[in-house]
User: Which sequence fits this backbone?
């Protein structure tokens, strides 16, 4: 009880309340603008959060992360253009309902499903926390090494059809993390006698380049387009009542979101895909999916909004980020000397409880904002893309320069911006590079710490936890191999597919 009261006291601080409001409102606006997305916004804001207290900075970033999923449904439903990439499936049934004159109903259902998914995942996070606190101390260096390796492998095999490219990009990220002066024996690695490489590649500089600058380049070279968006009429609160008619779909889809959020390297896309497919298979009217099915819309929105809170589970328990956005948040912990992992649950339970309460409040605030201001938010859909690109460009360089007042950092950021732009044009993923940098660093640290107890390679997996994780790795690789063989055989049998 004392911890809860301490968390409430922190929650009522002015800076925390402002972070909640800015994160909720700002995230909705960012999600509603096609072409921006939470990764760009978080990358730009990340340098500013280093001067804030950890709970304030994390509340702001998590608010933007979660709220953008809500906001991304608005253009997906009204103009068939997802505000964020994870709202792509929302266009299938959401825009179909708009064409049928049910835009208000579609938005109401999307908001309600998003709220249910968000609250459901926070409840799961809070419920699982005591068990995580008990299990987490069992993880030694070898166990976390294996967990990081599992995350890296799942990142690679999650990119179906681009597995080889994802693998190469992960290794590229790992290579970037090795550049500079290593911290144990202070040997120079891949510096080529260049003094500016001694400190290595800063994760924030790389993040801003790959995500923010690359998107700025995409927007600057693209064309501005004007879309007519009619005002939405109807009772937006009515979706809550309708959601209960499809409670089985909402619960199953939110559960998928939680599971996929916990598994490193998976995230919203697979959560949406599985939940949408399951909802269609269990539906009494599967033929309506893609043509205005309320169940399809609920499955999509509840699944993707259940991921953000669930993605915090491996981050808080093991210090292992599941995807790029939680990797960005990991740096906020490190800057303030808060190390996520087993000890965090014993040493700073009040911090964790405050974080849980903030996640609850963010979802409530976002729902209220959307219900009250949807028609006002429609104006941001038509913000010119080139204007957005110019703003992102300026803010990115300001953020990079503020880190260390270094022009070299700005140049490095620009180079990674070009790399990100090229990868986007080639339709290759950016996330593996970031996770390669983060997980590669974790693996190197844990590998060094494990060596004192290692006599043979089998010693890496002779503990119950590390052995179990290794078995999961083998099963994942075999399953992926079987899927590839089946896909290859299917193509051979049906060359026209």
Assistant:
């Amino acid at each position: 009880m004392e911890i809860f009261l301490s968390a409430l006291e922190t929650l009522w601080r002015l800076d925390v309340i402002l972070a909640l409001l800015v994160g909720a409102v700002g995230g909705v606006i960012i999600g509603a603008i096609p072409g921006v997305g939470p990764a760009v916004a978080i990358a730009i804001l990340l340098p500013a959060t280093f001067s804030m207290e950890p709970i304030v900075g994390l509340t702001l970033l998590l608010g933007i992360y979660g709220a953008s999923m809500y906001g991304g449904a608005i253009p997906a439903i009204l103009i068939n253009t997802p505000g964020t990439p994870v709202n792509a499936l929302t266009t299938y049934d959401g825009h179909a309902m708009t064409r049928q004159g049910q835009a208000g109903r579609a938005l109401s259902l999307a908001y309600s499903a998003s709220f249910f998914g968000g609250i459901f995942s926070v409840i799961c996070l809070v419920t699982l926390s005591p068990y995580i606190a008990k299990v987490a101390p069992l993880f030694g260096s070898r166990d976390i090494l294996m967990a990081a390796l599992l995350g890296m492998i799942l990142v690679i095999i999650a990119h179906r059809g681009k597995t080889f490219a994802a693998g190469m990009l992960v290794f590229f990220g790992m290579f970037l993390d090795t550049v500079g002066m290593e911290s144990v024996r202070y040997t120079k690695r891949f510096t080529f006698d260049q003094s500016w490489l001694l400190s290595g590649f800063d994760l924030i500089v790389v993040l801003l380049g790959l995500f923010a600058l690359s998107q700025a380049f995409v927007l600057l070279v693209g064309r501005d387009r004007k879309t007519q968006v009619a005002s939405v009429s109807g009772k937006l609160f009515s979706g809550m009542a309708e959601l209960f008619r499809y409670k089985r779909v909402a619960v199953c889809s939110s559960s998928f979101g939680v599971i996929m959020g916990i598994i490193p390297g998976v995230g919203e896309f697979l959560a949406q895909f599985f939940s949408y497919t399951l909802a269609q298979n269990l539906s009494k009217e599967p033929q309506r999916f893609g043509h205005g099915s309320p169940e399809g819309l609920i499955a999509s929105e509840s699944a993707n909004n259940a991921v953000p809170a669930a993605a915090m589970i491996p981050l808080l328990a093991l210090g292992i980020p599941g995807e790029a956005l939680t990797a960005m948040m990991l740096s906020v912990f490190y800057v303030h000397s808060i190390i996520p992992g087993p000890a965090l649950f014993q040493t700073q339970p009040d911090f964790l409880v405050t974080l849980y309460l903030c996640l609850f409040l963010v979802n409530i605030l976002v729902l209220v904002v959307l219900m009250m201001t949807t028609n006002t938010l429609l104006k941001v859909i038509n913000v010119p893309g080139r204007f957005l690109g110019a703003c992102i460009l300026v803010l990115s360089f300001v953020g990079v320069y503020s880190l260390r007042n270094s022009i070299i950092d700005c140049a490095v950021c620009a180079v990674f911006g070009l790399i990100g732009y090229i990868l986007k044009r080639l339709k290759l993923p950016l996330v593996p590079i970031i996770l390669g940098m983060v997980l590669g660093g974790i693996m190197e640290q844990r590998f060094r710490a494990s060596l004192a107890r290692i006599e043979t390679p089998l010693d890496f997996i002779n503990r119950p936890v590390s052995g179990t994780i290794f078995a999961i790795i083998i099963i994942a690789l075999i399953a992926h191999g079987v899927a590839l063989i089946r896909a290859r055989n299917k193509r051979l049998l049906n060359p026209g597919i």
Notes: The beta strands are 180-181, 188-189. The chain has two domains: 2-453, 461-497. The first helix runs from residue 2 to 11. Residues 461-497 form one domain.
